[in-house]
Amino acid sequence: MFYGWSLQATRQYFSNTSEHPLAKWERYIQNDLDSCKLLALSMRTNYQHSVYDASVYHLISGSYLTRIGSFEAGIEHLRIAKSYFFQWQDFELLSKILNEIGIAFQLSGNRYEAKSYYLNAMETGAKTGNELFGVLPEINLAKLYTEQENYDLGLQHLHHYIGVLKKYQKFEALGNAYAALVDLYLTKEDIPLAIKYAREQQYYAGKSKNPTSYIQALTNQAIIAFYEEDNEKSEQLFLKILSLQKNNGHPLKLSEAYFNLAGFYVETDRKISTKFLDSAYQIAKTNRLFSMQEDVLLFMQTELEDSSATYKINELKRIIDAERTKLTANLQVDKLVDNQKANTDLRIVIYLLSGANIFLITFRIFNHLANKRKKSVS
Fold first, then answer.
1. pTM of the entire predicted model
2. Three-state secondary structure along 307-353?
3. CB 366 within 8 A of CB 263
4. In terms of CB atoms within 10 Å, which of 156, 167, 263, 307 comes out highest?
5. What is the pLDDT of residue 151?
6. pLDDT tens for residues 123-143?
7. R_g (Cα) of the chain, nearest Å
8. Which residues pair with 5 in a beta bridge?
9. Contact, 256 vs 227, CB < 8 A?
10. Residue 79: C-alpha distances to residues 76, 272, 310, 338, 360 (Å)
11. Are 223 and 365 in contact (CB under 8 A)?
12. What string of H, E and C letters represents the secondary structure of the chain?
C-alpha cells in the first residue's frame, strides 16, 4: 500500500481510463517519433500536477531526446524518472527506465555504460518475480554484442530471450527477436541461417497480427532475395510493401518504402530509381522527417552523384541543429513538483510494457547490402 493506493487498485484505476501516456509512448518510441514528440510536449504542460505525471514526463521526454541525438539532456531526464520509480520500488517500470538509459548510451556510442544499464535492468526486472521482466532488456544487450562482433555472446542472449518469450507466447517480441537474428547473420554474411530465421520472423509476425511486424518481416524477405540476386522476388516484395504502406497512412514508413525501391533500381534503371527517390524525399520533407531526408540526400550524393545534394545536406543539418536546440529547450529539465512534499497527490502506477527494441533491420541495411553487392561486381 502506497499513500492509500494498493497496486491492484492502481492497475484497476487505469484500466478504466483512456489510453495511458505510457502505452502511447511504448508505441510511438519504436515507430512514430513525431507523435512521441507531441506527446512529450503535451506532458510538459501538465506534469506539474503530480509527482507521477512528472515521472512519466521525464521518461517520455528523455527517451525521445536521446532518439534525436540530445543525449546529455535525454539521459538527465531519464535519471530523474529513475529516481522517482526507485523511491517507490516500482521494479517493473524501473527496469524499463534502466533499459532506456542503456539505449541512450548505446546510441551515443558509449557501449560500456550501455552494457552496465542493460544488466542492471535485467536484475531489476527479475525482482518483480516475473521471469519475463528479467529478460526484456536482453535483446538490446544481444544487439550490443553483435555491434561489437561478439557474435557468440549475442547469439547466447538472443536464444535465451527467445526461449523465455515462447513460454509466454509474446509473438510480436518474438518477431523482433528473430529479426535481430537475421541482422546478426546478414552481418556475418551467413545467408542460409539468415533465410532460416527470416522465415521464423515471418511466422511470428503473422501470429502477432501487428502490421508493422508483418511489413518488417516482408522487408527482410525482400532484402535476402535481393542479396541472393533473386531480383524478381525482391522487386515483387518491395512493391507489395509500398502498396501496404500507402494504405497505412504512415509518412515515415511510406517514405522508407519508396527509398527501398530507389535502392533496388539504382543499378538497373536510374530513371525509375530517381523517380522513387524523389517520392521518398518529398514525403520526408513535407512531414519534416529529418533523418529520412538526410538518408535520401546522402543516397543522391553518393549513388546518383547529384551535386545539388551537398548544399541540401548542409542546409538540412542547420535545420536539424536548430530543431534539436529548440526541443531540448522546450523539454527542459526541471522538477516543478517536490517528490518529498506531494504525498497527498501521489498515485503509483504499474504499467506493463513490452521490451524497447533498437537497431532492427531497415532500409539502411538494404542500402548497405546494395552498395556491397554493387562493389563486388565492379
1. 0.75
2. CHHHHHHHHHHHHHHHHHHHHHHHCCCCCCCCCCCCHHHCCCCCCCC
3. yes
4. 263
5. 96
6. 999 999 999 999 999 999 999
7. 22
8. 2
9. no
10. 5, 48, 38, 16, 26
11. yes
12. CECCECHHHHHHHHHCCCCCHHHHHHHHHHHCHHHHHHHHHHHHHHHHHCHHHHHHHHHHHHHHHHHCCCHHHHHHHHHHHHHHHHHCCCHHHHHHHHHHHHHHHHHHCCHHHHHHHHHHHHHHHHCCCCHHHHHCCHHHHHHHHHHCCCHHHHHHHHHHHHHHHHHHCCHHHHHHHHHHHHHHHHHCCCHHHHHHHHHHHHHHHHHHCCHHHHHHHHHHHHHHHHHCCCHHHHHHHHHHHHHHHHHHCCHHHHHHHHHHHHHHHCCCCHHHHHHHHHHHHHHHHHCCCHHHHHHHHHHHHHCCCCCHHHHHHHHHHHHHHHHHHHHHHHCCCCCCCCCCCCHHHCCCCCCCCCCCCCCCCCHHHHHHHHHHHHHHCC
Cell of 265: 533500381
Q: If we measure between CA atoms, which residue out of 121, 73, 129, 127 comes closest to residue 100?
A: 121
Q: What are the residue ranges spanned by the domains of the chain?
A: 169-227
Closest CA to 258 of 269, 273, 236: 273
Record the cell numbers describing residue 162, joined without a space: 527467445
Each residue's pLDDT tens digit, 253-300: 899 999 999 999 998 999 999 999 999 999 999 988 888 898 899 999
Contact between 178 and 200 under an 8 Å Cβ cutoff? The reply is yes
Q: Which of 91, 100, 158 is nearest to 125 (CA)?
A: 91
Residues 4, 21 contacting (CB under 8 angstroms): no
Q: Give per-residue pLDDT as tens, 70-91.
A: 899 999 999 999 998 888 888 9
Positive or negative torsion for Cα 160, 162, 163, 165 = positive
With a CB cutoff of 8 Å and minimum separation 6, the contacts of 148 are 111
Mean pLDDT over 40-67 rounds to: 86
